[in-house]
Write a structure and sequence with these properties.
five-stranded antiparallel β-sheet; mainly beta; 52% strand
């Protein structure tokens, strides 16, 4: 599955709002911070591949 690229646009407590950047859509997804790598902050760029997020 994937890979898909995301940007963290907002963090609300234990959740992050991610915007997919490799397609023209403006839809966001909500992901638990526990599933994201350490050091993830607003503006971070993430790669989702094989059910795992990594910082780019």
């Amino acid at each position: 599955m994937g890979p898909y690229e995301y940007t963290v646009i907002r963090i609300d407590g234990d959740y992050a709002h991610l915007l997919r950047t490799d397609t023209p859509t403006q839809d966001t997804i909500l992901v638990a911070m526990a599933l994201l790598p350490d050091g993830t902050d607003e503006g971070s760029k993430l790669l989702w591949e094989n059910l795992e997020y990594t910082l780019i």
